[in-house]
Amino acid sequence: xxxxxxxxxxxxxxxxxxxxxxxxxxxxxxxxxxxxxxxxxxxxxxxxxxxxxxxxxxxxxxxxxxxxxxxxxxxxxxxxxxxxxxxxxxxxxxxxxxxxxxxxxxxxxxxxxxxxxxxxxxxxxxxxxxxxxxxxxxxxxxxxxxxxxxxxxxxxxxxxxxxxxxxxxxxxxxxxxxxxxxxxxxxxxxxxxxxxxxxxxxxxxxxxxxxxxxxxxxxxxxxxxxxxxxxxxxxxxxxxxxxxxxxxxxxxxxxxxxxxxxxxxxxxxxxxxxx
Length: 275
Description:
Layout: H1 9-23, E1 26-30, H2 36-46, E2 49-51, H3 59-62, E3 68-72, H4 81-93, E4 98-101, H5 109-119, E5 125-129, H6 130-138, H7 157-167, E6 170-174, E7 178-181, E8 186-189, H8 202-216, H9 221-240, H10 246-259, H11 262-268, E9 271-273
Parallel strand pairs: 1-2, 1-3, 3-4, 4-5, 5-6
Antiparallel strand pairs: 6-7, 7-8, 8-9
Helix pairs in contact: 1-8, 1-9, 1-11, 2-8, 2-10, 6-7, 8-9, 9-10
């Protein structure tokens, strides 16, 4: 695959979604209790195969066979952290991409320490909101509204670039415009709807979708991340045309992602290079 600089984003995003549907990558998710259901359904509707495997005893046999790993620290406990670290280490050892969602990273010293230790295990992609990415980049505990962001994505561009350079990961900051950077290139994905903020686990679910996209093209994690974010946003835009509120948007989001076609992707994807 050519880099995105030589291709239009719409055809590239459609190509990656088509590969997810054709290959049905196995995405292992070590995630929080709130997000498991929606995350699994988003992966299934996109064509991927979810596995909510988090038992430390199963990891040596399971993780090496997954095509990608997604780690989400939303309902973090000291009992789950060893499994997260072990899975990340196994993924790296076996050359499998893994994606980190540092939920509320700056909310407590325990959570921040856990997230920084996971970053040290070389994730392929880190996806968070502005406050989470800024907390990780600065390694500081600050005011946090749970999983909600006190900063918009544009506030975190420099922090994202810094974190990308120090971690070696592609960093995505979700917001009204999603920012994607590898520390050198910066892209913005402007798809989505504000009502997604009223549905729990949509951020968690788009992180899992990123893992599925990176699974089918791990050498182009920057392009795969931007494409996944945009496709998810397009599905939300299509879903809201039928929705009456957050609950029905959740249903129509899943349906729209399942049924999204080439024409919709080519006409709706809004990704631009910012640098």
